[in-house]
Amino acid sequence: MEEKTDKENPIDTELVETLSLRKRYVRRQRLSWYYAPSFLLLWLALFYAIVIPLYYRLPDRLTISEESHRPGEFVAEQAQRYLHTYDRIGPKVTGSYANEVTTVEFLVKEIEKIRAEMRGDLYDLELDVQSPTGGYVFNDMVNMYQGIHNVIVKLSSKSSQSESYLLLNSHFDSKPGSPGSGDDGTMVVVMMEVLRQMAISPIPFEHPIVFLFNGAEENPLQGSHGFITQHKWAEKCKAFINLEVGGSGGRDLLFQSGPNNPWLMKYYRQHARHPFATTMAEEIFQSGVLPSDSDFRIFRDYGNIAGLDIAQIENGYVYHTAFDTFENVPGRSIQNSGNNVLALVRAYSNASELYSTESDDSHAVFFDFLGLFFVYYTETTGIVLNCVVGVLSLVLVGCSLWRMSRQSEKMSLVQISIRFLIILGLHLVGFLLCICLPLLMAVLFDAGDRSLTYFTNKWLLFGLYVFPAIIGLVLPLTLYFTLLPNERVSHAYQLQLSLHAHLVVQALLALILTAMGLRSQYLCLISMIFYGGALLINLVSTLHDRGYYWAPIVMFLQVVSFSYFCYLFYMFLVIFIPVLGRNGYNTNPDLIVGLLCGVCVFFALGFAAQLINMFRWPKLILLGLGVTTFIFCMIAVSEMGFPYRAKTNVMRANCLHTRRIFYEHDGSVSRSDSGYYFNYQDRRAFAPLQDSALNLTGLEPVANNCDDYVMCGIPCFYYSWCKWRQWDGWLPRESEVILPGELTLDFLGYTVLESGTVARYQFELAGPAHMNLFIQPVGSAKVHDWSFVRKMLDEPEEFQPPYQIFHSYGTDNTSLKFSIDMEKSDSGFDTPTLELAAVGHWVSYEYERDAEAKDFVAAFPDFVHVMEWPSIFKRYIF
């Protein structure tokens, strides 16, 4: 055996020397490795030099003193004066005096001032304070309202005979404890100043404009429903603009449009002064990923009218907190929104399309390009573009392969094609790694209870998710080029093949997304256009065949697409990161952020990242990125990675100091206790509070009682709270919670109906301005009918007990009388048939909290914003 080995040694040595020569040959074709850091830093510099300045670009604020020199323009200082008064009113919870009386009086007073300033020879102004009562099914609950308030203005030209109205909407109510100066006070005052500018304009407009200041959006969406289903002007509204704020300041994003009225987007493109929009935002929002909704849904579904949904999205950290104040709303943001809204109102109020708004069953593809201009085309046009550009991309790749075979004496077209297919397969692996490695990082950090480390320090995202995505995208081809070099085709050609592979993947992805009906495929279109354009230039100019001379053309055009994709996904991170701090305990927020970063790298650096293989020692470069990721991980698990900061990046906690009483079928009380009910807002629950002064001894999961009591025996507020109730917490309290009022549920008796198997149970409910009913049939019984909206009973596949009824009122506190028809096949209505819980919420700060509850809330650390109020839960069995 030794003799045989000796004979093979020369062969092995020759093979090793041959491979070594090949590697040295390949390395000589590449650029020196020390240029690589500069190459990577170039893209980082472009991000901060181009993307960030354009993203945060805002117009200068127009002052009152400048108005005479610039007539007809939106005056931000005037809007800020409105906002200052609005802010000083304080929190404006539906049902509170501040909301139903003080804010309504403020709005009416300012509108009357505008009436006095209005050009009476040109315009008519009608003012109406509506107080609607109604109900509808919202997600998983029946949403009922009674005597809430809307302040509505109709401004019309005396010369116009049009019966087609344009509707503008914003809401003046706020969340408990929040002044709501951002959400939605900013848009309230924008509307007020737009009303003033339209009323003093010397140029009349064609269509009347309805300004809806609705007083119950947070409840949710009750004010808009009351208007669109009951008001005398509603049926004449043919288009609308809904104005929202998802934070405090920034630019206003158009994130929903239509449905099926692309002319709205045509006007937006022509008239919006500061365009900021994307189809992708519309598709993400309508998918339900974000835990929020807007009045757009109500106008679309119940009014059957089309419109635009526009919202400021910056600084979502203060959204629905005590820090959503006048001081946190930049004047330049108000100017930006005002410029856009005023221009759009002028355009739509003169649009001939408003006379006939018949749907054409098509959607629009739309996006702004770095805020510089706006692109819009129909969905059908998008399908044609995708197919044409996709086919042209494949043709260009085919031409490139043919050119390579002509220029390479040792490789035929078939051999080049086979090598390209290998590279394509490896690039697909890289694509999967680009997405999966950031997701793996998200899973690991969540497993270590270190989610949301980037919540305050967003720069951590580079090391935690962006660099792993780059490594995953490039690694398969880097290993292939370095471990299996091929001197029969130049390295420059092989590098082009790797870029061609990304082009083919983009073309295939565009066709797949088009087939799925997703309009966000325009991202693939942008990628194909800019690389396909570079490839065409290189083929025509013969730079394609001259070493790496093709690379500058590719990089130059990639700067454009890189800037757009970074701009787009940075916007989504600005939206999502604060949202994930209130997205609940049951989902890992890092998965969403990791996915966004991975997809961003795929689109923004899909071509450019492959150029890492243009340098010598690319494995060393990737190793450097890996080391940098490790360093960022160490920073993230240190105190630097603690997510929350007082006042600016707060942790959220919902805490209801609750009294519970459980009545049995015979009327006896089986349990009576008090405690604190916690609706956890983020993934970490109360883990960050373990070392605080807050005493959480005895904290237990609500899930412990879910099998014993309807709705787990807790006073969950909205459908979203109740949906994920098993993840919430309950902390018992020894002393009884002192409530600021009474909740009464009177049982008026039951009557067996003619069939004999159905009995009608009648009740009367009275209490605070926010109440719930939870309805759970007992045993084989089922709900046959009730006096509420029937939709939940008519669709049993979608809605299952326990049923939630949410009831709120403004100034009309008349008791709620209702009935529930229960069906039992054995007609045994003298035995337990219905489990019913009545819940009262004293949400407004106009109600006093007891001393112990105040002390408990005050013990929360300063980085926690607590939304709290007293509540009562009464469970009955009938």
Automatic annotation (TrEMBL):
Source species, domain of life: Eukaryota
InterPro entries according to UniProt: ERMP1-like_C, ERMP1_1-A_TM, Fxna-like_M28_dom, M28_fam, Peptidase_M28
Names of the cofactor(s): Zn(2+)
Keywords from the named record: Endoplasmic reticulum, Glycoprotein, Hydrolase, Membrane, Metal-binding, Metalloprotease, Protease, Transmembrane, Transmembrane helix, Zinc
Transmembrane parts of this sequence: 32-56, 383-404, 416-440, 460-483, 495-514, 520-541, 553-579, 591-613, 620-642
Residue ranges occupied by any Endoplasmic reticulum metallopeptidase 1-like C-terminal domain in the UniProt entry: 648-876
Gene Ontology terms: cellular component: endoplasmic reticulum membrane
Compartments where found: Endoplasmic reticulum membrane
One Pfam family from the record: Peptidase_M28
GO MF annotations in UniProt: metal ion binding; metalloexopeptidase activity
Record domain Endoplasmic reticulum metallopeptidase 1/1-A TM: where: 420-632
Gene Ontology BP, a term: proteolysis
Entries under SUPFAM superfamilies matching the protein: Zn-dependent exopeptidases
Membrane topology: Multi-pass membrane protein
CDD domains the UniProt entry points to: M28_Fxna_like
Residue ranges occupied by any Peptidase M28 domain in the UniProt entry: 150-345
Similarity annotation: Belongs to the peptidase M28 family.
UniProt protein name: FXNA-like protease
Biological source species: Drosophila erecta (Fruit fly)
Gene responsible for this protein: Dere\GG20282
